[in-house]
Amino acid sequence: MFPHGLLTFNPVTLPPLIGHEGVRRRLAQAVAGGKLPQVMLLTGAAGVGKQRLALWLAQLALCQKPSQEPCGACRSCRLVSTLSHPDVHWFVPIPRPKVSDPDKQIEEAAQLLAQAMDERRTQPLYAESDGMASHGIATVRLLQRRATLTSVEGGRRVFILGEADRLVVQEASQEAANALLKLLEEPPSESLLILTTAEPRRLLPTIRSRAMALRVGRLSDREVWEFLEAHLRPIPPVEELDRRVTAAEGSIGRALGAGEDASKAQQAADQLLEAVLAGPGPSLELALRQPAWAARGEFTAMLDALAETLGEAARGALGQTPRRSMPAPLLRYRNPGPLLQAMEHVADAREAAGGNVNPQLLLAVLGAELAEAL
Ligand SMILES: [Zn+2]
């Protein structure tokens, strides 16, 4: 979960869909021409907005005054944007139901989903589902059951299955898998089924082959930047925004995840590099005598940040523009050799850190090695 205090949102409205203009245009043309495939699979890196795009498409397909974009003002648009349209069914991975009776399991799944939707309404910028959440057999049965209902608002019905690679029925239950395949093969009339996944290879080929795949690309750095600036409160300082945008590689999800912990790791890495570059002396000693690491994870995160910074400095030495800010002396290299050498030392330390070696000791050795290399 993202740190809560950081994100203040007007609850009950989805954040705007950012970017993906090309895909949006194609989808809008398909909607206008009545040529939208009934079963689609949106693929692309985690956090680029695939499920948000699916909701946008739901809005467009149900809009009462559609053009290139959903009008945003009609009853239908408003219901979708508050996640309360009775004909839009958004399935997200949920914990496994606790009851054992199959019918009760379906009810529990429905409740868990309703809870998840409540959370999305108050916290629309969500993290990837936790590792144990899935689309279980009960979810598939619920989907199947809802698919047989008639439209409440009289228009199309839209089913969105986010993180579809979490479909456990793929192996667990032949019956549920068959039910899903049948649904994908013969979707109810006037309905859309939109699956999203960052890992299409983890879907059964029989599922993949029944959907029209649509690739959702990465966002530009500018788009990620603008999104963070518009939605993070308080707005982080420019350096922090810069760091997050670089770490995000075009994914708003990653940019949001690159919060405080990552920032702490980066700061520690920058401090260490600055001290190393300043040469032997009290500040280097101080940097190497860093306070005890609260967790091994913090130490390895610092090493990762160190490696990334050195990597960016090496890009700079090769004449490319580094994608993050870094201690100024690192920008003066015209030959990447020493930086690559330093990266090797960090990689060695990273490997050793996986074992039972004392982080303080590792850091002392690494500091000396970096001082020699740089
Ligand atoms: Zn509308």
Features:
16 helices; binds zinc ion; 5-stranded parallel beta sheet; 51% helix; alpha/beta; 374 residues
Please tell me about this protein's structure.
The protein is 51% helix and 7% strand. It is α/β, with parallel strands linked by helices and 374 residues long. The protein has 16 helices and five strands. The protein is elongated and about 75 Å long. The protein has helices spanning 21-32, 50-62, 75-81, 102-122, 137-147, 169-172, 174-185, 205-208, 221-231, 238-248, 252-257, 260-278, 282-288, 296-317, 337-353, 359-373, and strands spanning 39-43, 88-91, 157-161, 191-197, 212-215. The two termini are 38 Å apart. The chain has a five-stranded parallel β-sheet, with helices on both faces. Residues 63-65, 70-71, 74, 76-77 line the site of zinc ion (ZN).
Bound molecules: zinc ion
Between the first and last Cα atoms, what is the distance in angstroms?
38 Å
Beta-strand percentage range: 5-15%
Written as H for each helix and E for each strand, in order along the chain, the element string is: HEHHEHHEHHEHEHHHHHHHH
> With helices defined by DSSP (H or I, 4 residues minimum), what is the helix count?
16
The description of the largest β-sheet is: 5 strands, parallel
Q: What is the share of helical residues?
A: 40-55%
Structural class: alpha/beta
Total number of strands: 5
User: Which word captures the global form?
Assistant: elongated
Residue-averaged pLDDT: 87
The strand order across the widest sheet is: 2-3-4-1-5
Query: Low-confidence parts, pLDDT < 50 over ≥5 residues?
Result: 1-11
Cα-atom radius of gyration: 24 Å
